Amino acid sequence: MQLKQKLTAILPPEEILDRPIDLVARSADAGFYRLIPKAVVRPRNVSDVRALFRFSRQERIPMTFRTAGTSLSGQAVSDGLLVDVARHFRRVETEDGGRKVRVEPGVIGARVNQVLRAYGRKMGPDPASIHTAMMGGILSNNSSGMCCGVAQNSYHTLESLTFVLPSGTVVDTADAQADETFRSSEPELAAGLLELRARLLADTALADRIRAKYRMKNTTGYSLNAFLDFEKPVEILRHLLIGAEGTLAFIAEAVLRTVVDLPVKYTGLLLFPTVREACAAIVPLGQAGAAALEVMDRAALRSVQMQAGIPASIRALPEAAAGLLVEFQKESGADLAAIEEQARDAVAGLVLLEPARFTHDPTEQAGLWRIRSGMFPSIGAVRKSGTTVIIEDVAFPIPALADAVVDLNGLFRKHGYDEGIIFGHARDGNLHFVVTQSFRDEAAVARYARLIDDVVDLVVRRYDGALKAEHGTGRNMAPFVETEWGPEAYAVMKRVKELADPAGMLNPGVIINPDSRAHLKDLKPMPSVEEEVDKCIECGFCEPRCPSRDLTTTPRQRIVVRREIERLRLAGEGDGTLAALESAFPYDALDTCATDGLCATACPVGIDTGQLTKRFRSTRHSPAAREIARLTAERFALVERGVRLALTAGRAGRAMMGSAAITAVTRAARSLFGSQVPLWIEPMPAPAKPDLPATVREGAAAIYFPSCISRTMGALPGEPGEMSVAEAFVAVAARAGTPLHIPEDVRGRCCGVPYSSKGFTEAHALVINGTVARMWEWSDRGALPVVIDTSPCTYGLRSGQDLTSENRDRLARIKLSDGVEFFADTVLPRLTVTRKTGAVAVHPVCSLVKMGLTEKLEAIARACSETTTVAASAGCCGFAGDRGWLVPELTASAMKEEAADIRASRAAEMYSSSRTCEIGLTRATGIIARSFIHLLERATAPGE
């Protein structure tokens, strides 16, 4: 019986993924190991998890739990069952006025802090990946970060857990009878934990060593301090699960104690002659109250010194120099003068290359933090094609930190890792080092093996540090756990694994692994493919931004599949996998990509997989299709008339036959003519008014370019249609004394986005060059700004893609202003709000987010309404120009969470800045979405 058929006794078929593309797409995490799972399963609840544990035992198939897959050491990969708990375990609730928070494993860490922000609190762990990493991984790796240190990590802020053991036993440790229930349900496990505790307490030397090692960051192996910190078996196991990397049980829910979020920050970059002086400053700065102390060696600073916004002084630093990024944090209302004095006193005796300069300015602070955060991606972006980026984290006693940095750099030189850099959380003695590595041949693997052997010797034998400080043991350091801890402590860890998971089916090979070469096996292949793909480090930071993440594939997964296709082609493997991947790739990777580019805003190396998708779409076009696109670009005014006629005919047909019949007709047309025939799916707009409002050129404050969408698509069913977007733009601007002028020849002009998104490069070049040339004349050669009413059009034009050099120069001299930007900055301050709407929701479209204009849309809404909601889950709506008619399931999937949040906000109205996106929002929420200009027009209309 096939595996999927057996699993359907536990889960519905849609929660069992076994197609080659599904398995390959999920085969990699952020680390450099890869295993292909036999199936990916998505349990819906604890009952499903218990059934999967039973299935795993019976079938002898190992299983690994996975959330975001941002783990760096191979903890989230499996060649058995990969259990994806990110889909259905996403609940987060605050308790006790925000002093506690209850989370499920599929909640993103930043989402937790978003919920806690209203209480002025946050969770303790603050990993750099918090905007992507989910609570399952944060807890299971005992993740920390820049400021949390040891005291505020998951282990020390844990209040209670609900977990499921491989036996199927479910324990809620918050229950007053939890320990008694645990002892009766799992007598052997409970007794074994108490025996291990007694063994450790009796070994005074080992107990002292455990206490000492956990005073600094340490995630190597299991959390042995649990045996010394707690007496009851259930409490010991509760804390053993923190940092256990999913090898002992499934964490279904956790309650964490939260910490105060300190909003007052004072930040500075201190530059030292040598790393020794930088490390000497750690103790005095820490004693002075610095919350963050980030050390960077010269190589790390060099890796970012040419990036935009980096101070020029960094480029002139001597070879031995080092830096410390220092931040003091205080509660709201803190005495700023006192903080400044505190910082001055702390740096007064330090040996610096230039005077210390601290700032309260958020923009300047963000720039300083970009120096630190840009180091890992800077190496990833410039590495050789076919190599991977390896980032490891170790911890040293602070007095030895300077020597350790020097010694690590020595190892880079010894083994030929000239690009290696070192940075880290100096306050905790925690260093990260980054190297690039190829695993293409045995010589490359052997070189890496020699480096790791020397790193282990340096950290363990020379400095008695920790091989893993916050990234978890994983596959990379599992062979060296005994080396760090010694045989007695390692025996305890092995016994813990045997007691909790006697069948050894849960995430095998992670933490406990007898294979001394396990870290050199199952290495991830990185074949060279497209330039965009080659830069990808597969970290997964893009995934929360992707609208297709719950439907088909994410940017990371598209790239993983693309690499596997190339690997199979080169290897000539003929088991049918290549054909299956190539067959599924068009829909899963291309048709359902919104090409919104939001992935690039989260990507450490700035990859926009939307551009790659467009390139692939271009290669799929036949010569005839390209010629048709070119002809429509040359006669775009006819396209506008055609769209209005189609909308008119469709609404007439709906009136006669009903919406279902019209939808059926378009489905039939798709079956005959292909998937590029759009579906008629309600709500559909009426055709826009054929005539644009009359305006005059003389005295105009700006040129107004109504997009082709605004010129063709009018009101939605139920939407007041007395004033079009163009009419509202003109009326409100005139009301403020900033009149707009619409050129008479604006019809037939387009920003080119419809062609660009489909990969019609030649057609795109025709329309965008024609439009920019006309804008140059309309604006009197850049003398007047040009205002655009649809944000994707503004962004598409600003990108300047496919422009001639002449038009690129023209565009640089034209001030293109998005409607949101123009009305927020220029018009709104000149208006009087006469009536406010009650509760409204606003949706910042992708292009608005990428242009950094979200706050301006919110400002307009706040000025015009009593309450304004931007859903915490707001992202790309997935409509993507025409995807909402071609692949409607994309919008349905992308909007599922945001629609629920908007409905929960009880907003009666919704506003955005793109008609097509507004159609998708309306379809998903049932609330009519309109252009923001209608809200502003109504709010500032003269009183009766």
Number of strands: 25
**CA-based shape:** globular
* Percentage of residues in strands: 5-15%
- First and last CA, distance: 75 Å
CATH topology of the domain at 261-471: Vanillyl-alcohol Oxidase, Chain A, domain 3
- The assigned structural class equals alpha/beta
Largest sheet: 7 strands, antiparallel
Taking all Cα atoms into account, the compactness measure Rg is 30 Å
Average pLDDT figure: 93
Strand order of the largest sheet: 14-11-13-12-16-17-15
Per DSSP, the total helix count is: 44
Helix content: 40-55%
CATH superfamily of the domain at 261-471: FAD-linked oxidase, cap domain/gating helix
Unreliable residue runs: none
CATH class of the domain at 261-471: Alpha Beta
Using the 3D structure, state the CATH architecture of the domain at 261-471. Answer: 3-Layer(aba) Sandwich
Give a verbal description of the structure.
With 944 residues, the chain is of the alpha/beta class. Among the domains are: 261-471, Vanillyl-alcohol Oxidase, Chain A, domain 3 (3-Layer(aba) Sandwich); 527-596, no CATH class; 633-824, no CATH class; 832-940, 3-Layer(aba) Sandwich (Rossmann fold). Helix content is 45%, strand content 13%. It has 44 helices and 25 strands. The strands form five sheets. Strands 14-11-13-12-16-17-15 form a seven-stranded antiparallel β-sheet, sandwiched between helices. Strands 5, 6, 7, 8, 9 and 10 form a six-stranded antiparallel β-sheet that branches. Helix 8 crosses helix 11. The chain is globular.
